[in-house]
Amino acid sequence: MTFSPAETARETTPDIGVAARAERLKRVPDDKAMLRAVAELTRDLGTANPRIFWSDFLFSAFLGYAALAVAIVAAPLWLQLVAAAVSILALYRAGGFIHEVTHMKHSSVPGFRFGFNAVIGVPLLVPSYMYEGIHNLHHSRTRYGTDQDPEYLPLALMKPWTLPVFILVSILAPLALLFRNAVLAPLSLFIPPLRRLVVERYSGLVINPAFRRRPAEGEARRNWIWQETVASIWSIALLTGVFTGIIPLNAFLIFLAIVSAVAVLNQIRTLVAHLWENDGEPLSVTAQFLDSVNVPPPGLLPALWAPVGLRYHALHHLLPSVPYHALGEAHRRLSAELAPDSAYHNASYKGLPGLAYRLAKSTMVRGA
Question: What are the boundaries of the signal sequence (predicted)?
Answer without folding.
Answer: none
